[in-house]
Amino acid sequence: MKWLGSSASAAGTYLAISCLFFAQDARGAEAPQNDPSARAPRTRYTSRRTTHTGVSREKDEAMWQRSLMTAMTMLLLGALAVTVTAAPPTEFQGTITLARGIVEELYGAGEVADLDLASGASVLRFLGIEPHRVPTGETAFLARLQPGYYADFGVVVADAQGVPGAPIYVCSDYNPDNNRICHTPRLAPDLQRVAFGIAAGGGTDCVDNYGLYWADYVVVRDRGGNEFARFEGYYAPDWLPDGRLLMLGSPCRGAGVWIADAALQTLTRVDGGQVATPAANPAVSPDGSRVLFVWNQQLWMMTLDGQGDLTQLTTFEQAVQAGGWSPDGTAIVMTVAEFVGAPLPLKSLVFFRPGDTEVQVLPLTFYPWGPLSWY
Question: What is the pTM of this model?
């Protein structure tokens, strides 16, 4: 599936910090060689009002009106073939756990929130970032432990009632922009172990540009803080349903997609050498048969059946930042940057099903940050 071909009309309109995103017209898109029947999707734009902590209803309404005005202007100009409707979407239901800004005006993420797709309401859960919620309700995330631009964050797991436990690992002087020494905690299917990424020294294989032993690591600890495994030169873990652990290789390991066995003893490269430069933000499908990841600033999908079939799902003018699966594994949600190289996501979520001929772009009143857990 080639989504939003580069020859289609431009896809994006911006209004101060209240950004809207429109998917490209399909008239110029062409199907990929590996899927002749695929067509670039026609876009349906679904608008909604979203309320969350720190934003008044009046302010929310004003933002909505500005966004709708911008959308209608684009329609009148004939820039895009877009349908604007105030009705909530019916195709995609459930709740998405993600990170958002502490207040609407702030760009950076600072809160873990649940976004209800039926109502558009988001509910604050924790102060923190990079959440991963499992179907039972437990959530692993990076919790802010102290105030400050550089501050200690902890790898924390909250139970199904939303009660956070003690940190199992402390990331000292963490900063998401220039000292991202911890990332992407993932709770295992057994609910007892947590895999997460760190940057640290003390290794034996990987050196940095200064010749020092400083590298990415995937670490696995139990909820009591006891360490079970540490993999040097790897990052961005995600669990398979059978207890195996997927991770991405750093340049030290020749990049690639790797899987550790359930005993966390043996690593095997599973991409056949195709992913030759570092990728980001993997998301294993609910049945463990496929993985999404961001590579070359676009969203890709690879099978995990031993064949390693690799498919590019998007060809945006913008950069994809993160993707996630619907609970049944048939649909995908993702965040997209304002433009290639932008640090900010658009204030919207993009939904589609591989092979479909249309997508939905849902505006938000805050900047959404992955990972995205849909349940």
Answer: 0.77
